[in-house]
Amino acid sequence: MARTTKHSPRVRALGAELREARDTAGMTMRDVAQKLGWHHSKYARFETGEQVPTPAQVSAIAATVGVPEAERERLTEMATDISNGDANWLKASSGHDELTTLLEFERTATSIVDVSPILVPGLLQTSDYARTIMAGEPPGEMERLVAMRVGRRDVLTRSKQPVDFTAIIAENALRQPMGGRTVMADQLRHIAKMSELDNVTVHVLPHELTNWTPAHAGPFILFDFAKSAPIVHHEHLSSSAFLSGAGDIQVHREAAVNLREAAMNPTDSVEFILRCATDMEDY
């Protein structure tokens, strides 16, 4: 298999799915490896994306951890797509697929740049704001997703190696009273509070800019990792793409630099956000 598949978005997404299935089953990596007659280090490499499992190996793992048949077929199909050479991008077929992959990348990233011209970045959302944008979900599912969204914040606040996070947020995302003015004012003050962390930097793109910026092309997230190639995430209405091609990474890295230059500096950004919060409350 081509070396380019190692650590690619689709391979790492498959590893994240296998890890989630194992955790759900309450099994350790040694448990799974022992049942399959493998050394635990071999199985560990499948979960981390260090080694690409064959479709047959994925099917065996899924059966061992008790994955339902339909889900087992989906995971096996992911492995088949990888073996066919389509490993450098991933089109998520459902919100669950995307969230599992996104959680894995957030958990293992050393730095994240989130360009967010439409909404507040997920890692900075309050539960009430998240609940508003997930209003289309069934009640029970919505609360589960909100809890997961808020729990993702741990990558920013954990005591050991918190991720270096930069948010570049368009003014329009700060001005729209999502969930009502009280909810939005609380959200804005939460962003300001999170910006006090040494590893969190917030920039605001003012709407008075007269020139085109890469933010006009839509939101994206750039992930950097200690031992893996960078990945870019694009989210769409019914699908999501994770890119790792060198050209794609360079374009998005340059876009992030350009946006930082166009945006307010961190101090002015936080002061602006707090003024927006006051405006929300006083309207």
From TrEMBL:
Q: Which residues form the HTH cro/C1-type domain?
A: 18-72
InterPro entries with a match to the protein in the record: Cro/C1-type_HTH, DUF5753, Lambda_DNA-bd_dom_sf
SUPFAM superfamilies (alphabetical): lambda repressor-like DNA-binding domains (SSF47413)
Which regions span the lipid bilayer?
none
* A GO term, aspect molecular function: DNA binding
Which domain of life does the UniProt lineage start with? Bacteria
State the protein's name. Answer: HTH cro/C1-type domain-containing protein
Instruction: Write down the species.
Output: Actinopolyspora mortivallis
